[in-house]
């Protein structure tokens, strides 16, 4: 796994050669700060704690892409990537990373959902691939722990053809914090 400085050097080298850098993992991610509070409105922080996968130890440069979509799969907020996870243990990849949802909960339309795409680098194919995804619907937003199911790729933002990743009890573990003024 590359450290932050090595990644910067690699990206600079790619840019000088006219190569794409979009597929390179980010050591720092693209996480955004919490929005300013508004009276009577709630903001949501989601801590991505860990993900359970049968082959967790084999995943290279794993990270999670978080997006908020309407019922038609259209982005409602900027898409955010977590930094690369640094700790793997048995069947778990640990993140312990806070993601600030970039819209007040009351402003999200009916049918919206928060998506979590688990991605990792495949050296043989030389690109970053989505392994699985999970999502949280609006009625699941409440303070505290939540464990959500993992689905097979491709990511179905419209939530029409969902297939569980495995029959095994492997999930995405999250902790939600609501901030209300």
UniProtKB/TrEMBL annotation:
InterPro entries: Aida_C, C2_domain_sf. Residues 32-179 form the C2 Aida-type domain. One of its GO terms (biological process) is determination of ventral identity. One of its GO terms (cellular component) is membrane. Pfam families: Aida_C2 (PF14186). Signal peptide: none annotated. One of its GO terms (molecular function) is phosphatidylinositol binding. Keywords: Developmental protein. PROSITE patterns: C2_AIDA (PS51911). Acts as a ventralizing factor during embryogenesis. Inhibits axin-mediated JNK activation by binding axin and disrupting axin homodimerization. This in turn antagonizes a Wnt/beta-catenin-independent dorsalization pathway activated by AXIN/JNK-signaling. Belongs to the AIDA family. This is C2 Aida-type domain-containing protein. It comes from Scyliorhinus torazame. The lineage of its organism: Eukaryota, Metazoa, Chordata, Craniata, Vertebrata.
């Amino acid at each position: 796994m590359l450290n932050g400085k090595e990644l910067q050097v690699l990206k600079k080298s790619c840019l000088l050669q006219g190569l794409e850098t979009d597929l390179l993992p980010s050591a720092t991610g693209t996480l955004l700060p919490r929005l300013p509070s508004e009276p009577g409105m709630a903001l949501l922080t989601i801590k991505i704690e860990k993900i359970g996968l049968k082959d967790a130890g084999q995943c290279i440069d794993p990270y999670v892409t978080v997006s908020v979509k309407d019922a038609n799969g259209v982005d409602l907020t900027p898409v955010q990537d977590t930094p690369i996870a640094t700790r793997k243990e048995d069947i778990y990849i640990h993140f312990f990373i806070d993601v600030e949802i970039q819209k007040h909960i009351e402003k999200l339309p009916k049918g919206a959902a928060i998506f979590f795409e688990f991605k990792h680098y495949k050296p043989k194919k030389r690109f970053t691939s989505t392994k699985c995804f999970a999502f949280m619907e609006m009625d699941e937003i409440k303070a505290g722990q939540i464990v959500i199911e993992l689905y097979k790729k491709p990511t179905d933002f419209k939530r029409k053809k969902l297939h569980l990743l495995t029959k095994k009890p492997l999930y995405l573990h999250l902790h939600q914090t609501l901030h209300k003024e």
